[in-house]
Amino acid sequence: MPFSASPQPPAPDSAPDSIVIEARNLTLSLGRAPAQVQILRGIDLTVTAGESVALLGPSGSGKSSLMALLAGLERPSGGSVRVAGLDFVGLDEDRLAIARRGRIGIVLQAFHLLPTMTALENVAVPLELAGEANAFARAASELDAVGLGHRLTHYPAQLSGGEQQRVAIARALAPRPALLFADEPTGNLDAATGSAIMDLLFARHREAGATLFVITHDPNLAARCGRIVELGDGHIVDDRTTA
Ligand SMILES: Nc1ncnc2c1ncn2[C@@H]1O[C@H](COP(=O)(O)OP(=O)(O)O)[C@@H](O)[C@H]1O
Ligand SMILES: [Mg+2]
C-alpha cells in the first residue's frame, strides 16, 4: 500500500504557555548490574516554542542520549517527557512515529539514510508518507537549499560524509517541522559549508518560528542560539541565555 493517506496523529492537548519540551527528573541507565551505567541522572528541562537551544558537554556526557529521549527515539529509565503536549513515555512506537511525523525533524549523528534510495528519494519518500502532494519537487528544492542540487540521483554510498549529513538535514527540514533536533549537524562539514547550513537552520527558525535543539561542539553555532544548556556527567551543569 504505497503512500496511502496516513492516519491522523493524536491531537495534542492544549499547551498553555507554549511549552514544547518538558522533561522531569529524566534518568537513563543502560546495561545490567554490576555493569550498569548511569547515563542521565535526573534531567529537568523546559523549552518553550521558538527557542533555539544549544546542548553542549564533553564527549560521553550523555548529549545524544538526552536528545534520543526528548525526540522519543528511546525510553527513559525514569521520569517523564512531554513534547508538544504529548506524553512520550506513554505512547507506543506506532503512535510515537505518527506523533513525530511532520512535526518533529531529527538529524542524527549517524545519518540513517536508506542505502537503497537516492538522495532525492531519501528526502521525498518521508514527505510522501506524510501526505505531501509535490513530494519530489519539494525534496529537490530542499536538497538544493543544502547545496546538493547536483547530487539528487546519487546513492548514500556515492556521497561523502558531509554530503550525507546534508541529505539528512534536508530530509529533516523538508516537512517544515515545528521542532527540529539536530545532533552535531555541522560535525562533518568544512567551515564554509557548516556556516551555510547554520544559516539555513536559523533562517527556518526565524521565518517559521521553529524550535531548534542542537547538539554541537562548534562555539560559533552555540553562540547563535538563544540559550546554552551544558551537560556534565549526566546532569545539567549550566543553563544560560546568550546575550
Ligand atoms: N547502548 C549503550 N550501552 C552502554 N553505554 C552506552 C550505550 N550508548 C551510550 N553509552 C554510553 O553513554 C554515555 C553517553 O553517551 P552519549 O549520549 O552518546 O554521549 P555524547 O553524545 O555526549 O557523547 C557514554 O559514556 C557512552 O559510552
Ligand atoms: Mg553524541
Can you put this structure into words, describing what you see?
The protein is an alpha/beta fold and 243 residues long. The protein is built from seven helices and ten strands. The protein has helices spanning 63-70, 93-100, 119-129, 135-145, 161-173, 191-208, 219-224, and strands spanning 19-30, 37-48, 52-56, 78-83, 86-87, 104-107, 179-183, 211-215, 227-232, 235-241. It has a six-stranded mixed sheet with strand order 6-7-8-3-9-10, sandwiched between helices. The chain has a four-stranded antiparallel sheet with strand order 2-1-4-5, with helices on one face. Helix 3 (119-129) runs parallel beside helix 5 (161-173). Adenosine-5'-diphosphate (ADP) binds next to strand 2 and helix 1.
Major sheet details: 6 strands, mixed
Which ligands, by name, code or SMILES, are bound? Answer: adenosine-5'-diphosphate, magnesium ion
- Which bin fits the share of residues in helices? 25-40%
The helix-strand sequence is: EEEHEEHEHHHEHEHEE
Report the uncertain regions.
Answer: 1-16
Shape: globular
Radius of gyration: 18 Å
Cα(first) to Cα(last) distance is 51 Å
Main structural class: alpha/beta
Q: How many H/I helices? A: 7
Strand content: 25-35%
- Quantity of strands, as a count: 10
Rounded average pLDDT: 89
**In which order are the strands of the major sheet placed?**
6-7-8-3-9-10
What's the helix and strand layout?
Layout: E1 19-30, E2 37-48, E3 52-56, H1 63-70, E4 78-83, E5 86-87, H2 93-100, E6 104-107, H3 119-129, H4 135-145, H5 161-173, E7 179-183, H6 191-208, E8 211-215, H7 219-224, E9 227-232, E10 235-241
Parallel strand pairs: 3-8, 3-9, 6-7, 7-8
Antiparallel strand pairs: 1-2, 1-4, 4-5, 9-10
The chain binds adenosine-5'-diphosphate and magnesium ion (MG).
